[in-house]
Amino acid sequence: MSVASGEPEAAVRERDGRVVWVTGGGSGVGRAVALSAAAAGWSVAVSGRRPGPLEEVAAEVAGAGGDALALTLDVQDVDAVAAARRAVVERFGRLDALVLAAGLNTPRRRWDDQDVREVHDVIATNLSAPVTVVDAALPDLRRTGGVVVVVSSIAAWRPSPGAGVAYSASKTALGALVRTLNEQEAPHGVRACHLCPGDIATDFLDQRPQVPDAAARAVMLTPADVAGTVQFVLDAPAHVRVDELVVSPVVRG
Ligand SMILES: NC(=O)c1ccc[n+]([C@@H]2O[C@H](COP(=O)([O-])OP(=O)(O)OC[C@H]3O[C@@H](n4cnc5c(N)ncnc54)[C@H](OP(=O)(O)O)[C@@H]3O)[C@@H](O)[C@H]2O)c1
Hints:
By secondary structure, the protein is of the alpha/beta class. Helix content is about 45%, strand content about 15%. The chain has one domain (about 10-245): NAD(P)-binding Rossmann-like Domain (Rossmann fold), CATH 3.40.50.
């Protein structure tokens, strides 16, 4: 543990004891957030459906001297989310932050080619699941004056026709989710951020009807770029709320 100059050691100890749960923590942005938070002294829980990537992230955190818990779950499953929340608190004794990075899109995303079951799946993953996780964790977040970073999309901030019907609608609604959380939970010290990134070079792009090539990906944001903005929000002092952040690559691929 390093003590920054001028910072009381007790404050650093307090910060280093903090715990973040990252949904979608096995890959892309979620993975980068987990590694960044662990490097900053946070204990980390990562969740997703595939155990392999989660175990790899947990091992990487442990290898660097951090503490991580891998939780295999479908974030649409309300009971599994409740069980995961219990597992986090049992393991670490507290929960200080959520980073909600689990997300879904589909190549068939226009009114003229969509499958309504896929539409429901996208909305359940991108919108209903964040509600489920925040609802489950709220008592813990109230105790700690916790932070919620909702990884939304630039499609929630400006019209993005290519993003599709279900994705645009579900991500746009996350802005309202964050605003209501901030309005109602501020008296308990809970703070939420609607994070709206532009294109990020991750496997998520494979869900596009036209999958971007390596040259297009090379000018996009990296998962580490986005993790840097998330870390800024996580590390903000308890009296500071970052309501919304938009981060874009300078060049559009
Ligand atoms: N890439 C971009 O250009 C971009 C731009 C703006 C915003 N975003 C947002 O960034 C977030 C992270 O995406 P990414 O780019 O890092 O892509 P990614 O690597 O594909 O991450 C998506 C994550 O969501 C998890 N997930 C999906 N459905 C799930 C479910 N039902 N239950 C549990 N976990 C589930 C996946 O894990 P499992 O498959 O193991 O479940 C995966 O780890 C998403 O919310 C996405 O909408 C991405």
